[in-house]
Amino acid sequence: MAEVWLAQRADGAMKREVGAEAAVTHRLREDLAQTLRPRTDILAALEHANIARLYDAGVSPGGLPYLAMEYVAGQPLTDCVMRTGRICGNG
User: Fold this and answer.
1) Torsional class of 55: left (φ above 0), alpha (ψ -120 to 50), beta (otherwise)
2) Region of 12 on the Ramachandran plot (φ > 0 left; ψ -120 to 50 alpha; else beta)
3) How many CA atoms, within 13 angstroms, populate the side-chain half-sphere of residue 33?
4) SS3 of 45, please?
5) Residue 55 burial (10 A CB sphere; 0-12, 13-18, 19+)
């Protein structure tokens, strides 16, 4: 499971909003970053207008893996599902 936040670089080197996704876990698994590595490799290779671009990936100082992806404005998927009972799309 993961949470996604709207984020910006802390050092100010670039002005770009990103969706920052970090794993949510009650206990830190030492193999978590390695387990998620194939997902990161797949995301990095994808290029499509309907898929958010991967900008960066790594491990936080606290040991949690994260992804920095293209920010896509819209409603949270969970809100849509709660409201309609299904995954919403724009097509």
Assistant:
1) alpha
2) left
3) 11
4) helix
5) middle
| pTM summary value | 0.71
**Residue 66: how many CB atoms within 10 A of its CB?**
19
Per-residue DSSP letter, 47: -
Tens digits of residue pLDDT in 21-61: 887 765 666 777 777 788 889 989 999 988 889 998 888 88
pLDDT digits (tens, 9 = 90+) for 53-88: 999 888 888 777 888 999 888 877 788 889 888 877
Residue given tokens 């009650």 in the structure block? 26
**Sequence-ordered strand ranges (E) for 27-73:** 54-59, 65-70
